[in-house]
Specification:
21 helices
């Protein structure tokens, strides 16, 4: 580039005139670029819809029916967000396709915006190619194609990181959009709210120890998004469940994990001679898993389910925490470690979803023929084959993400990949928080790991893209400066 000459007074002289293209050509180029961007986005959305398109119906899971029913039933159900239930109702015709289209489109937007903010945008087909890679190697398209809250965990993590750590790279409309994504994600599930709250708390703690990772105003904006999400949930609980209360289920969740670990049976053995519990007569016949206890037609049904057992589960959880603190900590750590290793795709997406089938048949009978004709309901989905790829990719991605963080820490000079290392830190903290919330409190499941493991694969792919881009820029094989670059307005 030619350097401008300076006048005797030291004022920069105007650069030489640059010929301007005819306005018609400029307009045509912009229209072509816009059409290309729309086409790339449409292709990316279609890729994320492929499991549902192949299935001929959105994917269902054990928990789907509970969310669908929230619009139709005027009571609150443990761990079933009325906010997400309202979202499902608004997109239930035809056959919930609008729901999964919105989920897929939001995913394409958030991922594309993440690329742009980190200087990897400017080429819409690059984002589509990345989505295609994630669709092959991770659970992502199976999350976007499902009637479930799980995809919003990862979207909430990415949106919160951009909102808090990279606010200067965002336009006003993008900031508002990300704020709403975070708020809705927080309202969709209490576990998601806990993961996002851990990220905000970590950013604030880093600032307190004089290692600021974000402006205080941006951290406050992230916290405000979580508060708005909490307000959304309370509002929909009041509107649909007629109670200004949080979604129930608190003590039942850790109770289930303690039952699986044998702690409930031990506590009952130690106390039934001194205290009266309805479960005492059944203490030697308790189901092996929480799923069988809560949903398998166990003594839980005969004892009044969540309403009838709420006080007893609370007393057993509190009593066993006080009686066996060392054992509780040991089992919680084991469950967290087990959850970190559990990342398989498709848990709970079988063909024996009696509760979800019953809800759809009762409240949405017009959907039953299409639902019954789907490949999932015929047992044609083989997740075992998918997981031969997805499980190792998830594990390797998390290891490489941790390596990226460590590499950035030990560098003696600022690393060009440092912004991506900070994103990797947010992702790995979210994965750890998710493992604690879902593993140690609720109980390990592949489903809980798969819903966030794709974030690690995304970060690793972005790091690889940044390194290739840097090599192309300087031509020497050394780190370039583009990995943390700002937005490209054309993307």
């Amino acid at each position: 580039m030619q350097e401008p000459s300076s006048s005797p007074a030291g004022v920069l002289a105007p650069p030489s005139p640059v010929p301007l293209a005819p306005s018609g050509d400029g307009t045509r180029s912009r229209l072509v670029a816009r059409a290309g961007a729309i086409a790339a986005a449409a292709v990316a959305v279609t890729i994320l819809l492929l499991p549902a398109l192949w299935n001929r119906f959105p994917l269902l899971q054990y928990d789907s029916g509970g969310y669908i029913a929230r619009w139709y039933e005027d009571w609150l159900v443990p761990s079933r967000s009325t906010t997400f239930g309202l979202f499902l109702h608004l997109g239930e015709w035809p056959d919930f396709w609008p729901v999964i289209v919105v989920q897929s489109a939001l995913t394409v937007w958030v991922v594309g915006l993440t690329l742009r903010v980190f200087g990897l945008g400017g080429k819409p087909w690059r984002s589509a190619a990345l989505i295609g890679g994630l669709a092959v190697a991770t659970a992502l398209p199976w999350l976007t194609s499902a009637i479930l809250t799980d995809v919003f965990v990862g979207l909430g993590v990415l949106a919160l990181h951009l909102l808090v750590v990279r606010p200067a790279a965002l336009r006003r409309g993008e900031t508002i959009g990300l704020f709403l994504v975070v708020a809705f994600a927080a309202a969709s599930h209490t576990g998601t709210l806990a993961v996002l709250l851990a990220l905000v708390a970590a950013a604030f703690a880093a600032t307190l120890v004089r290692r600021p990772v974000a402006p205080l105003a941006a951290i406050g904006r992230g916290a405000a998004a979580l508060l708005v999400g909490a307000a959304m949930l309370l509002a929909t609980n009041l509107a649909l469940g007629h109670r200004l209360a949080w979604t129930p289920g608190g003590y039942a969740i850790p109770f289930g994990r303690m039952l699986q670990d044998g702690i409930v049976a031990r506590y009952l053995d130690d106390t039934c001679g001194r205290k009266v519990f309805a479960l005492c007569p059944y203490r030697h016949d308790l189901p092996a898993t929480a799923d069988l206890f809560f949903w398998g037609g166990s003594m839980f049904d005969r004892l009044g389910r969540f309403d009838g057992m709420a006080a007893e589960m609370r007393a057993i959880v509190r009593g066993s925490l006080a009686a066996y603190p060392g054992l509780q900590a040991e089992k919680a750590a084991e469950a967290t470690a087990e959850q970190l290793a559990a990342n398989g795709t498709g848990w709970g997406m079988g063909d024996d979803l009696w509760h979800t089938y019953g809800i759809i048949g009762h409240y949405l009978p017009g959907m039953v023929p299409a639902m019954r004709a789907a490949r999932q309901q015929r047992g044609e989905i083989d997740f075992a084959r998918l997981n031969r790829l997805h499980r190792p990719v998830a594990a390797i991605s998390m290891i490489l993400a941790v390596g990226l963080i460590g590499w950035s820490v030990v560098r003696r000079r600022p690393a060009p990949l440092a912004p991506l290392a900070l994103l990797a830190s947010s992702v790995m903290l979210a994965i750890l928080a998710n493992a604690v919330v879902c593993g140690a409190i609720s109980g390990p499941h592949d489903r809980y790991g798969a819903r966030v493991a794709w974030l690690a694969t995304l970060v690793v792919a972005m790091a690889a893209m940044a390194m290739v881009q840097a090599r192309r820029r300087d031509g020497t094989g050394r780190d370039g400066a583009g990995s943390g670059g700002e937005a490209d307005p054309a993307d």
